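pinned: reference chain
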Amino acid sequence: MTCDSLCQINGIGPGKAITVAAAFELGRRSSLESIIDDKTSISNPRSVFRMMLPLLRGLDHEECWGIFLNRANYVIGKECFSKGGLDSTVLDIKSIVRKSLERKACGIIIVHNHPSGSALPGESDISQTRKLKKALDTCGLSLIDHIIIAEDSYYSFADERLMK
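pinned: its structure tokens
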């Protein structure tokens, strides 16, 4: 809920609404940091879905994230690449390649959300994924998967054999 929405509840004013929103955000960030600290190994798209769902569920805009992996598919970091509008976000290929190289990643998984509720990729999603894969391949990096999250479901490009 937004702070304005919280203020509509009887007994909650602007100060308390900000406090409640901040507490939820700190809890969300804390739970996400513990995922990386636990030396998480990515073994399937479902594990990525569970990792990223707390970040992307309920957003009213699209966000694109990258999960950086070492050679053994352990998470060595993750980062939000872009925040967009209701039905799109920018995938800056040069920036993603540069950040992957800076983190000394061997592979990367791209994750973004669809606020519409449908996890199916659009033509733009497919086109951008192909371009990113080609750019990463040129640098000796692997695009392991591109996962789209929509509420309680996901779509994996790797599961659907679209990563070729």
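why pinned: Residues 14-37 form the longest helix (24 residues). The chain has a mean pLDDT of 88.
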